[in-house]
């Protein structure tokens, strides 16, 4: 049996049980590690431990863990560059030897001291859902491979939580999620995106449950999209970039005109994503947002969900250019056009990305009001 010291998110019992795949797996008692302190990894939702003379890292001592338990925990932690290291912790029964997961102290930029209560309030539900997907790959994918996929795993987890909590109108037929009976779920493909295959039954409009059917969905995330508009100059900004979808379809021109768009990071609001993406993709500081619509672009085959906004912006001559993040292989050209020129492109069929069509048509309806209030 192995003894471990948990100083971070694994002190949250539901998360620990998710990683272990069972409850009551070990004896947990409060413990302290002198001369160490847990800090947030700056900009992230998890901590790391660093030497801090005179400080104390609070935690839990886990005793009686099996080899299988340790293997599952090491899978959860090990892919992120943490390795088990022996230490001596203080308990009510005196000093005890345990192992902890440590990483090189210069691996991460240090944030504020780690606060478990703050993590439980802001991040626990996200990390719990992400841990479920991570541990579903135990024994099938390496820890390093899952760690590489973790940013998208976390965003998918957050998207599911948004879907569960977002107020939505009732369907005219009165049917809800309670009218679906899921029999089996599988994930035959997981990488940057995923595919989820279900065998399920859903209620028919005559009130009876239908037969079992096999259905699948492309699993992506929520995304925020923004059409920048300058009501003083009556101009919009459109982005042009290479897109894989049209390329795979065989389109002669896989470069498409689009709004600003980006996936919503775990813990971010759609509005925060909209402001961030405007800066990253186009170098724009938006002065305000107007919600256009929220919804599914293709619900028959994907869970992807769009939050579309009009972004108020200053678009003088020279506001266009080339932007994007090298870390995301982005090469994005921005175009500043008059409203009439953009609508001309739409009328000629030169804009083929439907969210941009939606945003331009919304702007056509509300443009005079926006200009009058500018």
UniProtKB/TrEMBL annotation:
Entry cofactors:
Mg(2+)
Q: Which GO terms describe its molecular function?
A: hydrolase activity, acting on acid anhydrides, in phosphorus-containing anhydrides; metal ion binding; transferase activity
Q: Where is the Nudix hydrolase domain?
A: 219-359
Question: Which residues participate in Mg(2+) binding?
Answer: 261, 277, 281, 330
Q: What residue intervals hold the motif Nudix box?
A: 262-284
Q: Which CDD domains match?
A: GGCT_like (cd06661), NUDIX_ADPRase (cd24155)
PROSITE patterns the UniProt entry points to: NUDIX, NUDIX_BOX
What are the UniProt keywords, alphabetically? Hydrolase, Magnesium, Metal-binding, Transferase
> What NCBIfam families does the record point to?
nudix-type nucleoside diphosphatase, YffH/AdpP family
What protein is this chain from? Putative gamma-glutamylcyclotransferase
